[in-house]
Amino acid sequence: MNFKSTLCFIAGLAMILASCANDKLVRNVESPDGKIGVQFSMVEGQATYEVLFNGKKVIEPSTLGFDFQNMPSIEKGWKIVDSQLSSSNSTWEMQWGEKRVVVDNFNQLVLNLEEEQVPNRKMNLVFKVYNDGLGFRYEFPEQESMKEVMITDENTQFNLTGDHKVWWIPGDWDIYEHLYHTTSLTGIDAIALRSNDNLAQTHIPENAVNTPVTMKTSEGVYLSFHEANLTDYAGMTLKVNKEKLMLESELVGSDRTGYKVKRAVPFNTPWRTIQISENAGGLIESDLIVNLNEPNKIGSVDYFKPMKYVGIWWDMHLGTKSWDMASGKHGATTKYAKELIDFASENKIGGILVEGWNTGWEHWIGFEDREGVFDFVTPYKDYDLKEVVRYGKEKGVELIMHHETSAAPRTYNQQMDTAYQLMNSLGIHSVKTGYVGKIIPKGEYHHGQWMVNNYRRAVETGAKYQVAVNAHEPIKATGLRRTYPNVIAREGLRGQEFNAWASDGGNPPEHLPIVAFTRMLAGPIDYTPGIFNIKLTPHKPNNQVNTTLAQQLALYVVINSPIQMVPDLIENYKGNDAFQFIRDVAVTWETSKVLNGEVGDFVTIARKDRNSENWFVGSITDENARDMNIDLNFLTPGKKYKATLYLDGKNAHWDKNPTEFQIQNKEVDNTSKLEYHLAEGGGAAISLIEL
């Protein structure tokens, strides 16, 4: 039985003004391919929706509403006064990213709701249904009975159809840098993760999860819950109700105000999103999150060039150098920067990041009084900013600016225009921002409305001065890169640096095969792959990277980002044949294809270089060895390619023998297949260069 017959659909795209049973008013909308359907109804005057996929429910009837500080809740006592159905099918172009052309094809249902009693408040609900999922949001139109709202809770429910398998991190209001857990829904225990000595800040008030959160049903359907276009609103976590098998929105709050969102009417909430796929790879290939954002507002960002970059960064995590000058091990010196620029220039690497260049690092973390600590325009005495920029330009290497705010955004706001103007005047067109520590003022959190607006201010200021922003300790990605393509990447996960100092042993081999199907669904990641000294010898005898060297290469393809760091100490790259893959691999793509994958186990992704006919393939696995067999039918028919395979060595193992690798060469075309082995915690990186 298909979805149309299930819901008494007539022909094509349908809307039913009265339900098949009872007297409830019902509206329906389905995806362009007919596989996903949404039924909306008023149950005792409360807005309720459910979702079907291939004729079977994936979301049981779930209610929608709000609690406010200054007015009655929105729950029961509402009615549909009008509704509209429409369709749209268009394309738009990413200026950089995982593909060039994005198809934006959806069917839309707009519901105009009104309170049945005085003051007759009005609210619209908008559902957009795509072939890869759906998004819905609340819209509050201009009205006399509602001028301003102070939201204490948004009560958006997601009633699940079973006790699904879930890949999750806790609903931390301050940070996303947790390891992922794999449990059933009823096995989620975020409260148990409140104590984490590896985090600079953390706040987990509820048994909730952060998004994207990915699930697999017993029928093999993949679901991922997230949000799109997070604008002037609090970030959403999802509270777990084990008894009802339900998730419910739990907005990040503020201890200073007592409410979670304050908005003047009219306004729209972010989109609440559900990606749906018959296979795990379909989640990665989905464009739902970017499509639910507004079109480009700032025009071309051709001042930003997708690139690989070296940096004065990994040294600090290894302890060989420091951010501050007083330690006697200062990393950000003119001499060292020039050495890295020379290496970058010799190896087709376009950028250099310099951390610790500006005054203030002696007093930046662990101190309560961090206001006014950093100066974002004044370098230390041993670092000549203008000379480094000049030398880099001479060598064809662009400086990436670094702004660590120490979670004191008011200090950053005061200097932001001056700092970005300085970048513009020097021809510096990208900045890595950081927000390490507990937010000042006390009572605000990284993911609350106040900080969402601070992160946005940096993006808008960057657009004003032609600067692209890569945010660390960020608000999560919600597709804003479509509207502001100067939003190039962000951290927002437990990154590579944890391998250098985390007391829990670093990121386990399963970490990145989970990240690819969870965090990466939100947007580009600055993960910093490419560590060759896997055992971190002699610097960190108690830490290591928990992958093989071949997997570190593969991550340049698997992890999507228009900026990819080449982070290791340069002596670890020199003379190593594996480094050729890093020289060759692209960072911005014409198209991307997921060739295989299972959440938390393995994934293989192929991406075509946007500027040539070359393709690159990356495979990674968890702690289990695997044999791979991939079809190269995505290659252009009639063309020949040189395939260079960077593979795990015969005895490679992420812990016992991580650096053994082998290189194979062969000629291939679109009729070829490749067979290769992934070691435990291993990977494969393949370049396919047109002959």
Distance between the termini: 51 Å
The portion of residues assigned to helices is 10-25%
Largest sheet: 10 strands, antiparallel
Mean pLDDT: 95
Number of strands: 36
Tally of alpha and pi helices = 12
Report the C-alpha radius of gyration, rounded: 25 Å
Assign the structural class, choosing from mainly alpha, mainly beta, alpha/beta, alpha+beta, or little secondary structure: alpha+beta
Beta-sheet strand percentage?
A: 25-35%
Model regions low in confidence, pLDDT < 50 over at least 5 residues? 1-23
Gross geometry: globular
Summarize the structure.
It contains twelve helices and 36 strands.
Question: Explain this structure to me?
Answer:
By secondary structure, the chain is α+β, with helices and mostly antiparallel strands. It is built from 12 helices and 36 strands. Strands 6, 7, 8, 9, 12, 13, 15, 16, 20 and 21 form a 10-stranded antiparallel sheet that branches. It has an 8-stranded antiparallel sheet with strand order 1-2-3-4-11-18-17-14, with no helix packed on it. Strands 27-26-25-24-23-22-28 form a 7-stranded parallel sheet. Strand 7 and strand 8 (122-130) form a beta hairpin. Helix 5 runs parallel beside helix 6 (385-395). The longest helix is centred in the middle third of the chain and has 18 residues, at 409-426.
